[in-house]
Amino acid sequence: MRLAFYAPMKSPTHPVPSGDRNIARSLIAALKHMGAEVTLASTLRSRDGKGDERVQHSLQDAAQNEVDRLIPRGQIAGWQAWITYHNYYKAPDLIGPNVSKALGIPYLQIESTRARKRLTGAWAGFARAAEAAADAADVVFYFSTRDAVGLRENATASQHLVHLRPFLPAVSVPQVQASDGAMLSVGMMRAGDKMASFEVIAKTLALLSHDNWHLDIAGDGPARADVEALMAPFGTRLRFLGQLDPDALSTAYQNASLMFWPGVNEALGMVYLEAQAAGLPVLAQDRPGMREVLAPARYPAPDEGPAGLARVLDEMLANPSLRRQSGKAAQEYVAQHHLMPAAASTLRDGLARVGVTL
C-alpha cells in the first residue's frame, strides 16, 4: 500500500515542536505500523494566522506549483491514496484534492474541521477552500465526537466518517511501579486557556484540607513569571521543572503520584494519555475534549469550580490505594484504546472502505 501524506497546518518535519507536529508524526508511524509505504508529499505550510488576503493568494499560487509537481510524481510512485491531516479554515488543504482527482485515487482526511461561519470575513477564501477539501474527502477520520457533529451535518452522501481515537505512538505501556511522589502538572505557560488552567490549580491548592502535598510543574513559556507569581504563596511545596524533553518528562511521570491539570478548553490533551500510560491517575475537569482521552472515573464539572477539584484531590491524596487502583485502570484503558495498534487497525478499516488494502 503506497500512500501520500500531507499536513498543511505544520509538516511533521517542521523544526518547531508542537502538538500538531507530534500527531502528524504519530499518524505516519501508525500507517507504517499497518504495513503501508508512506511518502511525505509536501512540506508547504498553508497556514494564514492573521486573515491576510495577500498571504492567502500567495499560498494558493505556491500550492498550485506543488500540484503541478506532485501529479507526475504520484504517477511514477504509484500512490494508491492521499491522506491529509488537519484541514481547517486557517490552513486548508490546497493540494490534496487536486492531486487525488488527477491521479484518480481516494482522498482521505484526518481531523477536518467545518467552520461555515468563516465563509465571510478575513478568512473567507481559505474557509471556502477548506470546505471544498472536506467535501472532496472520501473518508474523514475524526478524533473528537464533538467535531463529528459538524462533520455529519455537512457530509456528502458518499462520504465515510470514522472515529479515530487519539493515540500514543507506542505498541505497549511501560511497566511502572506506583509512586507516592509529588503531584504533577504539565502545561505550556502562555496567556489564555493555559493560564486559566494554572489559575484553577492555584485556587484548588488553596482549598485543600490535606496538608501533606507537593506539586511539580513541567512546562515553560512567555507567561512563566505570571505562573510563578500565582504559585508563590505555596512556597517550597511547589517546584518548577521547566520545559522537559520526552525522556525527562517520562521520568517525571514515573516519579509522580498523580496528574493534575484542569484542561480548560483543551481540544484533546495528549499529556493525559502520556500520564495514564505511565500509570498515573488523573484529576481534570469534565470537559468535552477530556472525554476523548480520559479513563472512566469521576471528574468534577467545570461549574463545580476549584471546590469540586479540591474535594476529589483531598480524597486522592489521603488514599494511596485509591490512587494506585485508579492509575492501573487508567493505564489499562490507554493500552486497550489509545496506542498505535488500535489506531493502525482503524486507519486500515477506513482505507478498506474505499478499496485500498494491503
Automatic annotation (TrEMBL):
Glycosyl transferase family domain ranges (all copies): 194-332
GO MF annotation: an example: glycosyltransferase activity
Cross-referenced InterPro entries: Glyco_trans_1 (IPR001296), Glycosyltransferase_grp1 (IPR050194)
Transmembrane segments: none
Source superkingdom: Bacteria
Ranges in a coiled coil: none
PANTHER family: SULFOQUINOVOSYL TRANSFERASE SQD2 (PTHR45947:SF3)
Protein name: Glycosyltransferase family 4 protein
Species classification: Bacteria, Pseudomonadati, Pseudomonadota, Alphaproteobacteria, Rhodobacterales
